[in-house]
Amino acid sequence: MRITQTKQRSHAKTQRRKENRELSFPLWAFASLRKIFFVLLALSLLAGKAPAARLKDLVAIEGVRENQLIGYGLVVGLAGTGDRKQTVFSAQSLTNMLERMGVSVPAASIRVANTAAVMVTATLPSFAQPGMRIDVSAAAIGDCSNLQGGILLLTSLRGADGQVYAVAQGAVMTSGFGAGRGGGTSQTVNHPTVARGPNSAIVERPAPSVTPSGVVRLQVRQSDFTTSARIVEAVNKKFGDNAAKAENAGLIAIPIPAGYAKRTTEFIAELESLLVEADRPARVIINERTGTIVLGKDVRVAPVAILHGNLSVEIQTTFAVSQPNPLSQGTTEVVPQTNVAAKEEKTRNVVLKQGATVEELVRALASIGSTPRDVIAILQNLKSAGALEAEIEVI
Question: 288 Cβ partners below 8 Å, 6+ apart?
Fold first, then answer.
């Protein structure tokens, strides 16, 4: 009797271990999904009520904007890494500059190994005043190989209207470097032909910004009718009824109250501090190159059953040598031998009920051991079946 009971217990343990092996999934499947799992899980935990954002983070004021500046200049002092002789405009630019300084030198006799022609760009902030300093970027336009250690000569920066709004001059810094020898061996780190000059430009003309007068117009950065309606509601609650009006999903007009007629800056500061809950469409962002998936908090899944399996086919070719018998007329031949093996995993299924959330979707996909590639395919199939209530955007 004892022997029979012992055999029964041993058989039960063996059966449980077999069932556990059938239900278990390889660790690599969960590890491959780990990166996106925690991102999606964090979004799902915050899927309750979205925190309100400041109005200044949701809108921009019409007329208050940055302006792009551009100029052509020369970077000198390079250690032989400047433009070569085939870059003609560098020598011409250096000749013209020297002539303005009273030095007459033929362009054909100038060596430009330590000089590089660059395009200089900068961003002029709104309401920038003369005397302020801004950053500039210099990018080589010739065959210069490295701008490291160079100095940008006086360069005029013009706006879209052709007016000079700033002048730049000073040392530039690169985020990379290049090193090598004449034999072709070289090493380059980052991008040494683009440099940046912190505070290298001085503003000479006020920025062409428009100060709101009478009516403040707010431009919603991500046009949405619901967000615009909530902004109007928040403004009217703060400054009284009919204080704001939404002209469309992306533009809101707010007349300046009489108490702020001469204090426009203070009125705009009051507007920017208002808290508004922005509304965003349900969207799924997929980056197939990196396997990254981001789901918004409002993504919902209709009742659906997911069956997912995997079929892998492996083809291996080996080459065998066929050797003829001694003293025979045959020749040695290479004979390819091809082996084909197919392996199909068992289908794993997931059932999602009505109103399933992002958290439930993520946990369900993780439970069947889905990889990021599998998740992308499943989401696309859910969208095709009409079960995923969200927009899919592939970047």
Answer: 376, 394
